[in-house]
Amino acid sequence: MRSLQRRESIPKVVAVRLVCLALPALALAAAGCAGGTKAGGADRHPTIVLTIANHPNDDSDLKEYIAAVSRLSEGSIKLELREGWRAQNVDYARGTVNDVRADKVDLAKLDVRSLDELGVDGFQALSAPFLVDGFSLEDQLLAGGLPGAMLPSVSRLHVKGLALLPGELQRPFGLARRLLKPSDYRDAVIGITPSILASRTFRALGASPREYRPGELVPYVFAGAELGLATLAGNSYDTEGSSLTANVSFWPDMFLVVANRQVLAKLTPGERKILQKAGSEALAPAIARLRNDDRVETDILCQGGRMSFVTATQPELASLRAAVHPVYAQLKRNARTRSFIGEIEAMKRRSSPEQAIPCAAPPPPQKATTLLDGIWEMTASSAVAVDDADIGHYRMILRRGRQELFHLSPPTWSGSAVFSVRGDRAFFRSPDGYGVYRWNLFRDTLTFQYVRGKEEGAPNLTFAPWHRVGM
Length: 471
Known about the structure:
Elements: H1 12-22, H2 28-31, E1 48-54, H3 63-72, E2 77-83, H4 92-101, E3 107-111, H5 135-143, H6 146-150, E4 160-165, E5 169-174, H7 182-185, E6 189-192, H8 196-204, E7 208-211, E8 224-227, H9 229-234, E9 242-245, E10 251-252, E11 255-259, H10 261-265, H11 269-304, E12 307-310, H12 314-323, H13 325-331, H14 335-350, E13 374-380, E14 392-399, E15 402-407, E16 413-422, E17 425-430, E18 433-442, E19 445-450, E20 466-470
Parallel strand pairs: 1-2, 1-3, 6-7, 6-8, 9-12
Antiparallel strand pairs: 3-11, 4-11, 5-8, 5-9, 5-10, 13-14, 13-20, 14-15, 15-16, 16-17, 17-18, 18-19, 19-20
């Protein structure tokens, strides 16, 4: 075993604790280790800080796992997020695995679909086309024995698989055409996450799969992509004439948490068990979040009005499944994958089909009085304004679906918009754009926050709290 000296990927507090555990009890004080009791008041279990890499620039799909580790360890294990890890790499999983092995990061989240590109085929059943097509089924299979049976297959990469986490469902997104049946895919360039199985699937449908970097899904190159609703809305991929096939799911975007083997070897068996158990503890809240995100993102995209939601007919669904029969034939040559697919198919037969969330028509301008109606004023300082032109005092009049907005400080200007309110969300449409906000009203103080993915909407009402000055 290597020396327990301080390494860049493990903070000093970890190395110190591990050295202390190896010392005789009488040597604790001499070594400067905390060996106190309840009476002495010293902490016998210093916090262990482990870094965890995430490809997105936030805690996407890791928040529940991080919280579960903290809860199960009673705060003695802290996962420190390294967001935006290899953010500009299309094939980020390969580099991230190398980073884990090289001690540049202790843990990492990997896209399960990309593992076959690294020679790991033990998870391919999870991405078999049109098989796992709902959150209920995703929940059921992750709560069962499949994760435990699949996780050892990642050991060939010389990392340890700790947990499988759920992810959003990947649906057919059409930029240049609607994607309802196999003929719609013929000769179409379809954007994908790196995956051998995804490439085979789209070739079976007659398409040309192509990997792309985040934010670079452009209509003049791609005819469509496999996308989740949150990714679609968050990157503002919806354009005039684009479409989403709401009742078709290719596969879920599941994730795997892996760890550096040497790091795990220096933890106690109980600490390693916490990192593993946190995956199952995170499942229920993660599925609940994914369901809610699907509803919210559908609402946002519907209200935006730029993208149409389309539904494949039963014959079209049957033709899609028939087109990928060769993909299944190849998958089932592997006995373990064949067994995993059989287990998932049995779960699916016992489950009720999950209904696609419908896209309601955009609401008409609000005609009834709302809680937001009134005369409001707000001052934007240089600390919060996007640029100098935004600094100053504002007045806003909201009344029965109409908004009048005034910038009272030089240079003065005014504008108008229509708005509607649905629950805790407010939708504003002006000649300059479309804004979606969450609002909160408390004692004549009104605040707005952009809904995730719509931070560039207009008008910008989020600079500071608004105060009611009249009705």
